[in-house]
Specification:
Structural class: alpha/beta
Radius of gyration: 17 Å
Number of helices: 7
Bound molecules: 5-O-phosphono-beta-D-ribofuranosylamine
Strand content: 15-25%
Largest sheet: 7 strands, mixed
Amino acid sequence: MNLAIMASGRGSNAEAILHAVEQGTLTARVTALICDRGDAGALDVAYKHNVTSYVVPREQFASRQDQQERMLELLRAANTEFIALAGFNAILRPSILSEYPNRILNIHPSLLPAFGGGIAPEPQAEALRAGVKISGCTVHLVTAIVDAGPIVAQAAVPVMAKDTVESLSARILKQEHRIYPIALQWFATNHVTINHGNVSVDSGVSQALWPNNVR
Ligand code: GRF
């Protein structure tokens, strides 16, 4: 599977994906990392892992539409078959969405459908404000409605009484790094069925997500 990563920030999920590829647990080739900011840590991650990166900043284009048309050209040129949004902070426009139907994943730092919509660390802050006792992360397919596409995988973490946005985010991030490569591997190995907006994963592989004691 030719995988492109799109990122805007630090790049720790991009790094987890590239690490899984290097370990052989994700059988994909990362053919491009596309970034909408020239100062993103994700660009250093790409460099470190020998992945070609492209910076496509909003200010160099007349419109968001034009910016994403350029991204689409780059995706095509890299023979992209699948896209992982890894902290990509822009909403994908119909041109990219329609070219990759059910072929774009995102990771979000909450248990969707709770606390969708915001950019990290807003979802973690919202979870703390709401006083939930469990939070986590969600890998979902990307559709036109932000953070509302079919859910592929989730991991839960406890919310502790003394948690700050930073401590909760760090606990969630560990799970993001664990489940995102697993979910991508399900797609790389064709273990995913999508039926009326519901994702099911073959039971033999879906168990990889769970620790032994809760299976
Ligand atoms: C993560 O919390 C992810 O869930 C959210 O944005 C953050 C990206 O972090 N979509 P990183 O750039 O992968 O380190």
